[in-house]
Write a structure and sequence with these properties.
Blueprint lengths: L1 E3 L5 E4 L2 E2 L8 H9 L6 E2 H8 L7 H15 L5 E6 L2 E6 L3 E2 H17 L3 H14 L14 H24 L3 H14 L4 H13 L3 H19 L5 H11 L23
Parallel strand pairs: 1-7
Antiparallel strand pairs: 1-2, 2-3, 4-6, 5-6
Helix pairs in contact: 1-3, 4-5, 4-6, 5-6, 6-7, 7-8, 8-9, 8-10
C-alpha cells in the first residue's frame, strides 16, 4: 500500500488506486486510523474527529463508515476491527510519504550534526521532493492542522538550506528556483525576496528586481498590514541602482549577507 498525504490524498493498493470513497466519511476515518495505526482509537475520539458538531446519530454513522472502509480496503495486508470501545487499523508493508518526509528531515539533521554537508543536501533534496503540498491538503480535518504546520516549517527549513547552498555556489538559477518555492509556501518571508533582489541585480534584470519588490510590498500590506523592513528596502535600493551587476554572493555568507549594504 502506498499512501500520499502531502498534497492531494491518495491510496494505491497493489498498484491500483483506491477511488471508491469519494463520498461519505470512510476516507476521513481511514486517514485518522492510519496515523494512529496499531492502537485502538476510542469511539468518542472518532466522534469528535469525524462529527465535531455532534449532529445526527454518530454511533450509526461510524458503523456505516467502518463497514464501507472494510469493503474498500479488504485485503490481507489491511484490516479494521472493533475492539473494546474503539477501532483498530492494522497495515503491513505500508509506505506513507509523510513518514518518509520525517525520515528525510531527521537524516538531514543527523548529517549536519556529523559535519556531512553532502549528506545533508541529499536529505534536504529528498524532503522537498516528497513535499507536494500541505498535509491532507483540502481535507476539512482539524486534527491535521498541527501536522500541517509542522510539515510546512520543516520543508521551509530544507528549502532555505538549499537556497543558502545555491548562494554559496553563486548559482542564480537555483537561488531563484528555491526562493520561488519558498514563497509558494510562505509568501511573507522577506529573506526570499531579498535574495531575489540580489540575484536579479547581479544579472542586470532591474525590472525583475522592481517586480519582486512590488509583490513583496503588496503581500505584506494585504496579508499582514505591514511594510517591508529596513533591510529589505536597503537591499532593493542597492540592487535597483545597478551596483550589483556582475557581482557574486560572498561564499562565507549564505544567509543573505552577499553584499555590503553600505557599498
Amino acid at each position: 500500500m502506498v499512501v500520499r498525504s502531502l498534497g492531494d490524498f491518495s491510496v494505491t493498493i497493489a498498484g491500483t488506486p483506491v477511488e471508491s470513497w469519494r463520498a461519505g466519511k470512510a476516507r476521513n476515518l481511514f486517514q485518522f486510523l492510519l496515523f494512529n495505526r496499531g492502537q485502538v482509537v476510542p469511539r468518542d475520539r472518532l466522534y469528535e474527529v469525524l462529527w465535531p458538531d455532534g449532529d445526527g446519530d454518530r454511533s450509526t454513522s461510524l458503523k456505516v463508515a467502518a463497514h464501507a472502509l472494510r469493503r474498500i480496503l479488504g485485503t490481507d495486508e489491511v484490516s479494521i476491527s472493533y475492539q473494546d470501545v474503539g477501532y483498530l487499523l492494522r497495515c503491513e508493508g505500508v509506505w506513507i510519504d509523510i513518514e518518509q518526509f520525517e525520515a528525510a528531515i531527521e537524516a538531514a539533521r543527523a548529517a549536519e550534526r556529523d559535519g556531512d554537508p553532502g549528506g545533508a543536501l541529499a536529505a534536504h533534496h529528498r524532503a522537498i521532493t516528497l513535499y507536494r503540498g500541505d498535509f491532507l491538503d483540502g481535507e476539512a480535518v482539524q486534527w491535521a492542522e498541527e501536522q500541517r504546520q509542522w510539515a510546512r516549517s520543516m520543508v521551509l527549513g530544507s528549502l532555505n538550506h538549499l537556497r543558502a547552498d545555491a548562494m554559496r555556489r553563486s548559482d542564480p538559477g537555483a537561488v531563484i528556483t528555491w526562493c520561488r518555492r519558498i514563497l509558494s509556501i510562505d509568501p511573507f518571508l522577506e529573506e526570499a525576496y531579498q535574495n531575489l533582489f540580489v540575484v536579479h541585480g547581479m544579472l542586470g534584470e532591474l525590472g525583475q528586481v522592481r517586480n519582486w519588490h512590488d509583490l513583496c510590498a503588496q503581500r505584506l500590506r494585504d496579508g499582514l498590514d505591514a511594510a517591508p523592513s529596513h533591510r529589505t528596502r536597503k537591499i532593493f535600493e542597492l540592487a535597483l541602482s545597478g551596483r550589483l551587476l556582475g557581482s557574486e554572493p560572498a561564499p562565507a555568507a549564505p544567509s543573505l549577507q552577499p553584499v555590503s549594504l553600505t557599498a
